[in-house]
Amino acid sequence: MSTKSLEEIFQAKVDAEIRIEPKDWMPDAYRKTLIRQISQHAHSEIVGMLPEGNWVTRAPSLRRKVGLLAKVQDEAGHGLYLYAAAETLGVERADLVAQLHNGKAKYSSIFNYPTQTWADIGAIGWLVDGAAIMNQVPLCRCSYGPYARAMVRVCKEESFHQRQGFEIMMTLCNGTPEQKHMAQDALNRWWWPSLMMFGPNDDESPNSARSMKWKIKRFSNDELRQRFVDITAPQADILGIKIPDPDLTWNEKTQHYDFGAIDWDEFYQVLKGNGPCNKQRLKTRNKAHNKGQWVREAAMAYAEKKQQRKASAA
Ligand code: BYC
Fold first, then answer.
1. Among 19, 76, 242, 258, which one has the highest count of C-beta atoms within 10 angstroms of its own C-beta?
2. How far apart are CA 120 and CA 43, in angstroms?
3. Of all protein residues, whose CA lies closest to atom 7 belonging to ligand 1?
4. How far is the CA of 199 from the centre of ligand 1 (A)?
5. 0.90 surpassed by pTM
């Protein structure tokens, strides 16, 4: 069959909401787009463990520590599901991880900002996981089966993360004036980077149109960002803290919040490696990876031994 016919059959399946599975024919560009997005997503989960991991030993109570520990471990699990989903597209996990560690691969801009106080852990759960859910729930309906199925569990866990973050914020906002001030300060620092998580505006997003045609993405970056603002702004009112945007106003006509301009220069600087913590994050990841070398070697040795035993028993 000609490539053109194969492409038509492929697109007809996508249009009919029939999932594409690893052994199905797919355009090379579809495969490459998925590898790019899924691996960047996996890297984000793994690097996302670092800013929060910094607070495990400093959580203010045993209950908070247990919650945070569980959340950080969940992120590691998400990374594993996603690397496994990427491997179904014919890439090696070790190669993907090497691209992260040598600085060639992208991961979410948000994880290049520092966690300065305990309130940042609340703000990350509330805002960063909140933004992640908004972006990732539609991915449960992604046209590629393994990615869509991985996202179902990821999203369930992310909603627990969002709630634990909001509860931390609620506790701080109902606490002493100093605690409320910490919550406000964390919101001031995490608000704009959270909006940047959704990616560039639609007219500056080179991948969106094609990814939407292929039903990898179901909504555009701007649509999801708007939904996030609409849901989050009233939550800040409940907390009694103020979103750091003088232009944020409810628009009766559109039934959405209007909001101010995002500093895209800052976003692209972070993507280029010049955010506040890019270098530190890569250094920490490389150190952790090198420290884990003996574990990988032991696992490989065990697998080889098992194989040998099987072969000699046969
Ligand atoms: N940071 O054409 P566009 C999480 C890149 S949540 C860095 O719109 P696309 C977590 C983009 O990759 C975070 N790079 O691209 C939460 C592209 O570069 P290349 C991870 C960004 O793919 C809590 C270029 O800009 N979530 O993990 O159509 C705790 C042009 O953009 C960013 C996901 O990965 C950014 N914020 O749309 C722990 C969700 N935004 O590759 C962990 C899955 C854009 O062309 N990913 N870029 O050089 C997606 O939904 C989409 O990939 C995006 C971007 C919406 C992020």
1. 19
2. 21
3. 108
4. 6
5. yes
